[in-house]
Amino acid sequence: MKNKYLKHLLVLSTFTLGACSEIIDGQNTATITGNVFYLQRIALPETATLTVTLSDVSLADKKSEVVSQHSYITEGKQVPLPFSLSYSLSDIKKGHTYNISAKIEIKNELVFTSDTAHHLIEDPEQANNYKIKLVSVK
Fold first, then answer.
1. Can you spell out the DSSP letters for 35-86?
2. What is the distance of C-alpha 77 from the center of its chain?
3. Phi-psi domain of 18 (left: phi exceeds 0; alpha: psi -120 through 50; beta: other)
4. Are 86 and 31 in contact (CB under 8 A)?
């Protein structure tokens, strides 16, 4: 009976930890996940760079402050491109507005960028499956 109880507790603990997988490092770091896509039928070269940024956009008269940023070489992969962006929860200030943006560059030239606000959902369990649409800059 005791072993059966412990097995159920272990399974339940595993599911609980899995549900909180977006929070790591003792709940001091969270991760945003999602996909970046564009509608044009254009293949990306292997050297294209995807950059995803989390910024504090609270003040309209001030340049946004980058909280976290990660760049990936696409290595020939095509859209939708998955991304994962970690950030420190201590960098998130109550009452501020945070935006997730993305861009694709080819040979350091901006080719696609997001033009729609994608605000950070402060509940880490819901901060996944963002779908960020990019538009051509040309």
1. EEEESS--PPPTT-EEEEEEEE---TTSPPEEEEEEEEE-TT--SSEEEEEE
2. 18
3. alpha
4. yes
Q: What is the DSSP letter of 116?
A: S
Closest CA to 85 of 60, 64, 68, 61: 68
Instruction: Give the residue from 137, 60, 138, 133 showing the smallest Cα distance to 101.
Output: 133
Give how far the C-alpha of residue 103 lies from the chain's centroid of Cα atoms, to the nearest Å.
Answer: 13
How far is residue 14's CA from residue 26's CA, in Å, rounded to a whole number?
A: 16
What is the full per-residue pLDDT of the chain (138 aa) written as tens digits? 444 443 443 343 333 333 333 444 456 999 999 999 999 999 999 999 999 999 999 998 889 999 999 999 999 999 999 999 999 999 999 999 999 999 999 999 999 999 999 998 776 666 788 999 999 998
- Phi, psi at residue 98, to the nearest 5°? -120, 140
